[in-house]
Amino acid sequence: MKEFKDFPNKYTAYINDRDIRDFGALVESFKVGASPVTNHIYQGRNRTGFTELSYEIGMLPLTVSIFFSAPSRRELSVNKSRLDAALIGKPELCMPDGFYYTASLQSAGDLAMLGQEDNQMIAVCQYSFNAIRHDALRTITGNTFRAEGTAPRMDARLVCTASQAYSQIQVGSVVFKNVAAGDVLTADGITGRLLINGEPAAQRTTFMKLPYVVPGLQTIDCPETLTISYAPTWV
User: How many CB atoms lie within 10 A of CB 216?
Assistant: First the structure.
């Protein structure tokens, strides 16, 4: 994945590690909005206080103005079409602010061209996304650690190697059963997979939720030393 130091200038961005200049495009400007928060509260009748029952933090709005340049109308249109296609699905955007954005495209904008055919055509289009802002994936070793980020929960991958046989062993929020010495156990809250030695093993586990980490100092339960991977996520 691209790092902020890889940016040749402030107008470059990457889509799934591909430079948008490959599409004849540059970032003219971009705006990151605040993550929406929905609170569920209970306030007794005629009471001056309330109790917070739960809350949800949604994906933040991301608006990007893209500048296109090409010798002809056709080439400019083709470049925009290629960029639009790259944004379909669940693209990973690396923006000039040094953050990654796992994005969902909401609007690709209209194409209004200016210039002279067979000389230089330009256009600016506005793209709108809902996105999750995060850093590159981090991997640490040890069951007690301090996680960065501000999202209340950040999906995590836990990996350990059994030093002995276990009838059952807890790996964070997942319990693996009938484990042999040397087995490599993976509880992956990022991809939603539970593996033993790289093979699907959901039938040999019990769990209520997949692994995640929270901001700050914490300890994840496991009798073996864990390798923990997560992406610091910022609301």
Answer: 10
